[in-house]
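--- STAGE predict ---
source: upstream dedup step, 1 unique chain passed
mode: sequence only
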Amino acid sequence: MKNTLIGLLMLAFLSACSSGVKINESELKKVKKVAVVVFTLKKSIEYRDEPTKDDSDFLALTANTTAAGSGENAATLALPQFIRELDRQMPFKVLTVEEMRANKKFMALYTPPKEVGLMGALGSFFVGGPPAESARGFMNFGLPSSYDEDDGEAIMGEKGEMKYIKAAMEALKVDAALIIVDRGTSFQCNLLCLNGGGQASMGGAFHSVLLGRNGQEIVKLNTWFEGEANALMGAYIVEPLERDYLYKEHGKKMAKEWVTVLRHKD
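--- STAGE serialize ---
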């Protein structure tokens, strides 16, 4: 059954013309077990008109500076949902968050991020990408300065990044590691939008890569999406009690988009 599913993926890809996907067919066939070792969202979840850009309604400025969502909480809640949905739809097994947390060698690889001041954060935004956040206890190496469907990279080129990814694969005993960086994580208006009120959702624009044990690129996939889940929003502020639901649905939506683009059913 799994070989049949992989065959369908290959057939779908061969008929595709999307510049956002590259695949090493022979290596993908060998993958039986995967771990999502880097899953990075924006540190501050703000309102954006388009997830691929840093655009926003002027009237959303106050909400973005005083009532933004927590990237750490979003990543912590989104990651298990992303993994669950990916595991459900793909022929390979994807390790759960619980399985990764239970692996002492893997968790020992984590080093807390260094605290940066305001100037450091601003410098990160303009030189690299915006401040980034991962699920609690998981590593991240930042975000890109912009989203690029054709040439965008999920590997940030930071010191120790590839060493960490390879060590994580070794510790977790997996065939491949998935790295996903969502620079477009943002609230957006989804329904009945008027003066910052209505139904809110979450959009994303991510770069991702599936790497083999030797660091070889198996799948490179970049895409963006608008959310489907709804929560109340007033004056561009998303109802705090409904944000956790949006975060979980964001993770699920990311996985669905990953699979859809890979199969080229968009």
